[in-house]
Amino acid sequence: MxxxxxxxxxxxxxxxxxxxxxxxxxxxxxxxxxxxxxxxxVGFARLADLAQRGFAGVTAGQWSxxxxxxxxxxxxxxxxxxxATFFPNAQGSGIPQAIAARHLRDPxxxxxxxxxxxxxxxxxxxxxxxxxxxxxxxxxxxxQVGASIMLAVARFGGMxxxxxxxxxxxxxGIAAAFNTPLAGIVFAIEEMSRxxxxxxxxxxxxxxxxxxxxxxxxxxxxNYFGSxxxxxxxxxxxxxxxxxxxxxxxxxxxxxxxxxxxxQHVRRWAHPQPLRRMVMLAAACGLVVAAIGILSGGMTFxxxxxxxxxxxxxNPLPLLFFLEKLLAGFLSMMSGIPGGIFAPSLSVxxxxxxxxxxxxxxxxxxxxxxGMAGYFSGVVQAPMTAFVIILEMTGDHQAVIPxxxxxxxxxxxxxxxxxxxLYHGLSRVFIAAAIRARRAKETAES
Length: 446
Known about the structure:
The chain has about 450 residues and is mainly α. It has helices spanning about 5-20, 20-60, 70-85, 95-105, 105-115, 115-130, 140-155, 160-180, 180-195, 200-220, 235-270, 275-295, 305-310, 320-335, 340-360, 365-380, 385-395, 400-415, 420-445. Helix 2 packs across helix 8, helix 2 (about 20-60) packs across helix 10 (about 200-220) and helix 3 packs antiparallel against helix 12 (about 275-295).
């Protein structure tokens, strides 16, 4: 065949491929989904901020500080009821649901955990929780939102890479929620998959880039906790690395281990009357969270962002704040209402570091940053994610080695004390429920 005809034939074929709608349709849907994650994440963040400001405004009067004793339990009850009746599987952080969906092979089982209906429910009920004073965050829920959008992309776009798309949506959610693109990628590799999946590289990177661009366009460029420039300047400062690593890791292991252990007992207790008993539990947890909030002067309500940012800027927190915030966050989680633990964990870690810094006479800002890294690494048992996310949120490049060391020490300490990572332990509950439902359906059909 002449060279001219061969080139002409290849050119015609390439034009057909590039002009084929069937070829571009899944790509366009995927790009739209990734961009939508960024837009929705920014909208979610603004709604969450409005909810917290609304709660603070209502409870700021002379005698209004007692209103949480009414508002918080009622808000917890409403959120728990709606989650159980209208938005099942919206409870808790949302990260365990995304992890479980990646392990499930049946599309119907995945849709029960990740769907556009759950996107609406997760955002709505997290905002209700924050408007009620719950000690929860929006970052974990954003992971379930992102994964749900990407699973819908797989369905609408006719794409077979459901597991990879869930991974990409989760990474995009974290990246857009914290404005931390590197942390989103590391989180996808270390926490969501626990294994390196080279086939998902392009999906994860593209999703993070597009969602990040959308968030950047709407919210601008910023560091979550501003910019810090502190580094160890003395032997005492270096001692913080060891203390915050071991202490933060042990505290994180206690939180995650107790959550997994008590969670089993709560599920057994609620089994005979799940709706009634879970609403009762939510009311009781809400009442205690309200009492803790009042005793702390309102500092434990909400995400704890303001307190953590203040500590990173060098303003010391009350010595017992980290214990009050840990208990408020733990009860909010055990209540079963939708809401994440990312932001409250960072607040607890900053409070722990602030206390250690005051006791040791070291830099409060450095101690808060190291406390966040140690405690967060202890809770999630993902040291690379902890290191990268703290570094990106604070911009403290002068303390790269200390942050890295604290994250690793916190992880090792936590693994010694609590062998099962929190999110993966919680994901087994959703996997087991899906298997039971599948078997019950097969038995009924046979």
